[in-house]
């Protein structure tokens, strides 16, 4: 069979499924089948490096590191848009246009204004060749590698497209994905991102494209520029782009006059709240390209387009007081308690104030009339003072913890204040136990967050290890507890002793150690004892573990109280080791030897071969170096590898040689 054709077919098929799933929101195969096909492609590509294609769907997982983003001059400048805020503004705009065009009848394309980071993507012969940020409009940064990881952006177009063009769009982070990312941050004790727009634009400049690939980014496209475009008007351009495979929102509408534009605006002013992503207005574009050309550009923006900004939902109300919340990691969050007020369909009583700097910057004082706005965030925020109240002094930020009275600290370069009383501050203690029992951690059935607070307040637990000493008769007297629920609680705790080490490690609540990091560390160190003895140097050698995580792990284990708690948990039977499945075939025959595996094998899959090496005490290296002892070569071993192995004088053995090696006594 023709391997190249097989590879190309798989690429085409995967491109189609990506399009169905991410653009049309209409998957036609299961995730499992998709992953299988992707794996098949990855395997074939690994065996046949001669068929490498930088636009293969396998490249979407990312993995390239960009230390410095290259500056690129835009072939066609990226303009901004003039803004309008009222229907009169739009009427004035039409009058000006009509003066230039001589009172022709005009059609307008109405589109939503997506709130994210703008991007210009170049396609050559149907393949994505470059993606550049807006920058100052004249030149931006080359972020091609990062952009390719966004699954709704086609790497290969369909249909009849010009040989070269640029397409412009907005990189956005839909609410759902944004909230999920924030939940993950909260899980590791970090402060959440403030809004989807900044997070989307920050994502474009991440150095590791594999990190970008993990973020649920999306790209909505709205404009094509280039020569020989097969359409002569904006609305047709949108339809055409959609047919080529781009994600072009279908809400756009062709309006025959300003009244129809107003209808569109009125409709979306209300219904934008039902969209899965943030919009901050409508963009109105003169539809016909001949008209556009006649109108041209000002120094800053096209004369043929204008943005209409929705009035952000803003109200004023009185700031009654400021309270300070203490999180699980001791971070202090100031919260504004407001005179209840109606905003965007809900009654708002509280708003986030972020940190001390924010309060100082806005000079907010208790008793002020403040502006409250609801943007992309879940919690509304205060954006300024409308009218000063009676308070003559600026707000003094608290210096001591409201819960335990410890003096607060603020680390260099951090915006947040912290209560350092890790072991004595009630919300920190309760928060840690709540994290310990949570679903992704120990998943203790029959025990909820409120009960944890009750247990603590009644002196029954002071850290998570105390949970294991709870008895049914201890808990029955608590509010809303009965025999049955008390038994469930105790049984749930008992069952948590079966939770595997990696989740226990996550449950401990070490700062920056989220689910993924916990898995990595557990897999690498295998036991808590080994992990607790690791140095910073050891730790950062583990894949994906950086300085910050390493420091935090070290600090955690340096602490005497943590060590006592872990010893207690151990004595109760909580898992602190990876339980290796017993392998009757394991030997030490290959110990001290490093192998590199290359090519395709008859009797083993590559993974099985690697496993056989490790099972027999050998090590698997990823590339040939002076440290390599043997290269196990299959069919189609890459010529570069062969040459390198020969140069370094490394023994090249066959699959059968290898089998013989492990079968010798
Ligand atoms: P502004 O940043 O307020 O000057 O608005 C101009 C920006 O709006 C453009 O640079 C685009 O990034 C963005 N934008 C969002 N949606 C659209 C759209 N449908 N058409 C044109 N520009 C849009
Ligand atoms: Zn405290």
Question: Could you give a quick summary of the protein structure above?
Answer:
This protein is an alpha+beta fold and 665 residues long. It has a five-stranded mixed sheet with strand order 2-11-10-3-9. It has a five-stranded antiparallel sheet with strand order 14-13-12-15-16, with no helix packed on it. It has a four-stranded antiparallel sheet with strand order 5-4-7-8.
Cofactors, ions and other ligands in the entry: adenosine monophosphate, zinc ion
CATH fold-level topology of the largest domain? D-amino Acid Aminotransferase, Chain A, domain 1
Total helical elements: 24
| Main β-sheet description | 5 strands, mixed
What integer is the average pLDDT? 91
Radius of gyration based on Cα positions: 30 Å
Overall geometric form: flat
**Helical/strand content category:** alpha+beta
Extended strand count: 20
* Quaternary structure type: single chain
Beta-strand proportion: 15-25%
- Order of strands side by side in the largest beta sheet? 2-11-10-3-9
Measured as a percent range, the helix fraction is 25-40%
Low-confidence stretches: none
How far is the N terminus from the C terminus? 41 Å
CATH superfamily of the largest domain: DNA ligase/mRNA capping enzyme
Reported CATH architecture of the largest domain: 2-Layer Sandwich
CATH class of the largest domain: Alpha Beta
Q: Could you say how many structural domains there are in total?
A: 6
